[in-house]
Amino acid sequence: MAEKNLDSVRQLFRDCLRLADYLSTRQGSREALRQQVRLAFRKNLDEKDPEKIEEHKEACVAMRGGRTKREEGERKDVGA
Length: 80
Prior knowledge:
By secondary structure, the protein is mainly alpha-helical. It contains 4 helices and no strands. Helix 1 (2-27) runs antiparallel to helix 2.
């Protein structure tokens, strides 16, 4: 269970970095946006409560438009 949670957090981190890369093409400094993502994840690095982790993940996904890259891929597979 904990390993699955860790994998989903890692995937979310990667998705957020990709989003920062995308936004930087439209809004400016790539490194500044990536640094903001890193700082947000480091701030919550020691969080152990699974419910809090889920809350943080849901907040990130909501900011990203409601889905992670993995979920978008799964939706495409289901729709095909």
